[in-house]
């Protein structure tokens, strides 16, 4: 441990206020607004996920800090406009979490935790049921018309599809088992093929969307997060293709110089080495 004084949350809030100060702030920060920061927020969230998936825990403090800075940024905008400030964000979040965990805070306050309530005695199914009931009450208080109303449109398409189908399933709009989803995937794949045979590329693109949506449904039924599943496959593809490039480079060539059959052979080598690393 170091004796160097550590910066506090208040230091961070002060820094943000200075960056946005018209007299002494940073020109770039002064130009930002609600909309211009959104892409940075999404990027920072993905960088946190990437560090976790790579188990790069030494990078996480920095990545989590970058994500926290986004919250501070929005809070500064709101404070300047007289809407709310960072402390309102913390208060709202804490109150919501207490309300959603009555099995942990039965008296509706953090102080009740001192009473020694054992949350492990509450069944997980009960917790999940209560959580969803409370979220439904929150949607009703916001006068939401549909059970889908509060699913963010800015979510990645795979994640949003999973949330849409999960929310619909809670009101009974779902297949009874995974077999029904598999049948739907086959149906959508047939429709893609029919559109391609007919030479209707526009319709084929639409059907590919339907196919992806059905596959997301299957991922949900298997309790797999589709974004995480696809990121894992992306990483696997990248590993194997880099192996193909490396193997070709050993003979002074690139993929442009090789046949598909040769590259496919190196690809299969990469698959075999992943399964049987002792053969390397």
TrEMBL record:
For this protein, the record's NCBIfam families field holds: mazG (TIGR00444), PRK09562.1 (NF007113)
Which Enzyme Commission number(s) are listed? 3.6.1.8
| One function term, GO molecular function aspect | ATP diphosphatase activity
Reactions catalysed: ATP + H2O = AMP + diphosphate + H(+)
Name the record gives this protein = Nucleoside triphosphate pyrophosphohydrolase
User: In the record, which residues are listed under signal peptide?
Assistant: none
Where's the NTP pyrophosphohydrolase MazG-like domain?
Answer: 34-105, 183-244
Q: Name one Pfam family in it.
A: MazG
């Amino acid at each position: 441990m170091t004796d160097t004084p550590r910066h506090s949350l208040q230091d961070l809030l002060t820094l943000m206020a200075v960056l946005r100060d018209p007299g002494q702030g940073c020109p770039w920060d002064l130009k930002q607004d609600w909309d211009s920061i959104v892409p940075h927020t999404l990027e920072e969230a993905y960088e946190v996920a990437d560090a976790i998936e790579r188990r790069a825990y030494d990078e996480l403090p920095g990545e989590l800090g970058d994500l926290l800075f986004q919250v501070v940024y929005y809070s500064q905008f709101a404070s300047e406009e007289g809407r709310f400030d960072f402390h309102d964000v913390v208060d709202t979040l804490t109150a919501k979490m207490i309300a959603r965990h009555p099995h942990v805070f039965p008296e509706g306050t953090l102080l009740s935790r001192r009473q020694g309530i054992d949350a492990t005695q509450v069944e997980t199914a009960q917790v999940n049921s209560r959580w969803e009931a409370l979220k439904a009450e929150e949607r009703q208080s916001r006068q939401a018309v549909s059970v889908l109303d509060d699913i963010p449109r800015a979510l990645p398409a795979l994640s949003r599809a999973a949330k849409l189908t999960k929310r619909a399933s809670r009101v009974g709009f779902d297949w009874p088992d995974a077999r029904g989803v598999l049948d739907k995937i086959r149906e959508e794949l047939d429709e893609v093929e029919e559109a391609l045979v007919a030479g209707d590329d526009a319709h084929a693109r639409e059907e590919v969307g339907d196919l992806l949506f059905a596959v997301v449904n299957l991922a949900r039924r298997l309790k797999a997060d589709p974004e995480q599943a696809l990121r894992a496959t992306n990483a696997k593809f990248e590993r194997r293709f880099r192996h193909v490039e490396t193997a070709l480079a050993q003979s002074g060539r690139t993929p442009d110089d090789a046949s598909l059959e040769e590259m496919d052979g190196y690809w299969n080598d990469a698959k075999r080495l992943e399964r049987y690393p002792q053969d390397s």
